[in-house]
Design a protein that fits this description.
Length: 360
């Protein structure tokens, strides 16, 4: 469906959701969301999703109960027919691997177990394998003249151990790292998984080594791989993963997508997730505003008043002079907030009143 005008978008949405109050539509237009549905590559699904949220807020304000839900931080795109077939092909190949066949024969007795029995089987084997151990990694600085005396990587375990003990004794240790080896396995509830600590050399240790190898080769998650080895369950490949993470620089959307997705599909996916984190269009920031943001951060904890800071600014940037401290403070804070995505911190102490109020 190609929609040419915002009025067309509103008519379609009202046919699906009833009359949209003018106050809601005006707010919706101000957020620049209906425009996403226009043109050949418009995303009406995303616009409709955002409208439902806004209508729910409006109805809640009118005293009407609305459903609430928390948006997920990650989404797995379901496979298409090609990926479903490819998943089965890879599972057949993986089942031919000597390590998988040996494990199934020697540990499982040639009989796969039911997926729902995996958690109980894992816990039983964990008890049989004995107490788990912590792995300690010690990094030491070895002088260059000692390097020729070190054993080869493929030397015997005893030779490697002896060399390591000597290095720790005579060289300078620089770091220590403790690591608890965990095995991920499915618990049968909505693709969720659990972990269990494992012992070196035990059955679960052997299972983890196989799972890590398959994970690296096929891109399966370890819990999926464990389920495949034990029960033969096919780990299905997705068309991609979409999610977001918060960083110091603000939110970042991550896309890991099958290149066979069309540009329209990618744009629709990105548009939907962008709408969860940012509304409207972001105009390019002008150089003056960028300099104000940097200046504000540089002098934020200087203890100078805004009037004093304005004098410093005018000396550094005579092409953009300010004459009123209140206006200078406002522009600095707005520019800083736009660049950082953070809210300008308000000082709880030392509030000034009178003529200087608002100029600190």
């Amino acid at each position: 469906m190609r929609l040419r005008t915002l009025e067309d978008v509103r008519k379609v949405l009202e046919r699906r959701h009833g009359k949209i109050p003018d106050v809601v539509w005006e707010e919706f237009e101000g957020m620049e969301i209906p425009q996403v549905a226009l043109g050949n590559e418009g995303d009406l699904e995303y616009v409709e999703e955002r409208l439902v949220r806004l209508l729910n807020v409006y109805k809640a304000g009118q005293g009407r109960k609305v459903p609430t839900s928390r948006a997920p931080k990650e989404e797995t795109l379901p496979p298409d027919e090609r990926l479903l077939a490819l998943s089965e092909v890879l599972s057949i190949r993986a089942a031919r691997r000597p390590d998988v066949q040996a494990f199934r024969h020697e540990v499982l007795g040639g009989h796969l177990i039911r997926p729902e029995d995996i958690p109980a089987w894992i816990k039983e084997r964990h008890a049989q394998d004995g107490e788990h151990r912590v792995f300690l990694t010690v990094t030491v600085v070895v002088p260059a003249e000692n390097l020729p005396g070190l054993p080869a990587v493929d030397a015997s375990a005893q030779d490697l151990l002896t060399a390591a003990q000597q290095a720790v004794a005579v060289c300078r240790p620089v770091s220590f790292k403790e690591e608890l080896k965990l095995l991920y396995f499915p618990n049968g509830a909505n693709d969720a998984f659990e972990t269990v600590p494992i012992s070196y050399g035990g059955v679960l240790w052997r299972l983890k080594k196989i799972a890590e190898s398959l994970e690296q080769e096929y891109g399966w998650h370890e819990a999926q791989t464990v389920s495949f080895v034990l029960s033969g369950t096919v780990p299905f490949l997705s068309r991609g993963m979409v999610g977001y993470r918060w960083r110091k620089i603000g939110p970042r959307i991550t896309l890991e997508l099958d290149p066979r997705l069309s540009r329209t599909e990618v744009a629709r996916i990105y548009s939907r997730w962008r709408g969860r984190l940012f509304q409207g269009a972001d105009k390019p920031i002008e150089r003056k505003a960028a300099r104000l943001a940097v200046f504000a951060e540089e002098y934020r904890d200087s203890g100078l008043s805004w009037r004093e800071l304005m004098a410093v600014w005018n000396r550094q940037y005579p092409e953009w002079p300010y004459h009123t401290a209140v206006h200078f403070a406002r522009d600095c804070q707005l520019a800083w907030q736009r660049v950082t995505g953070e809210k300008w911190p308000r000082k709880k102490e030392g509030k000034r009143r009178g003529k200087e109020a608002g100029t600190r």
